[in-house]
Write a structure and sequence with these properties.
alpha+beta; globular; single chain; Nucleoside Triphosphate Pyrophosphohydrolase
Length: 120
């Protein structure tokens, strides 16, 4: 997705906010993944992250999705152009180290999600 702050297209994980209509963060995560990718799967909560604890009190809820299944097309949004793809873990770490994948919140989510997936 193009990010104006850095002036380039950014690699990111599916994400979003908990809306008023969502009963809880899990419901929001399921909705966001389906809207942005057309996928669902087996969700497990892996932790929370404080995006900027020096200035904000919000929390980011991180979920690991196993056994992904595509059940629909992504929801079209004129404010977003999403190109969804799976990336091999070795390639992903190379992208992070090279700076190609540089979204800090996504990297922290990957770190705790991958740790959880390897310890299960």
């Amino acid at each position: 997705m193009y990010r104006h702050g850095i002036g380039k297209v950014s690699y990111e994980l599916p994400c979003g906010a908990v809306d008023e209509k969502d009963k809880n963060p899990l419901e929001a995560a399921k909705r966001e993944l389906l809207e942005e990718t057309g996928y669902t799967g087996d969700f497990s909560f892996v932790g929370t992250v404080s995006p900027n604890p020096a200035r904000q009190s919000n929390k980011m809820f991180v979920f690991l999705v196993k056994n992904p299944v595509k059940i629909s097309q992504p929801k079209e949004d004129p404010a977003e152009v999403i190109n969804c793809s799976f990336i091999d873990e070795d390639k992903l770490w190379k992208m992070i180290v090279s700076g190609k994948f540089d979204h800090a919140l996504c990297i922290s989510s990957l770190a705790i999600g991958l740790r959880k997936s390897h310890s299960v």
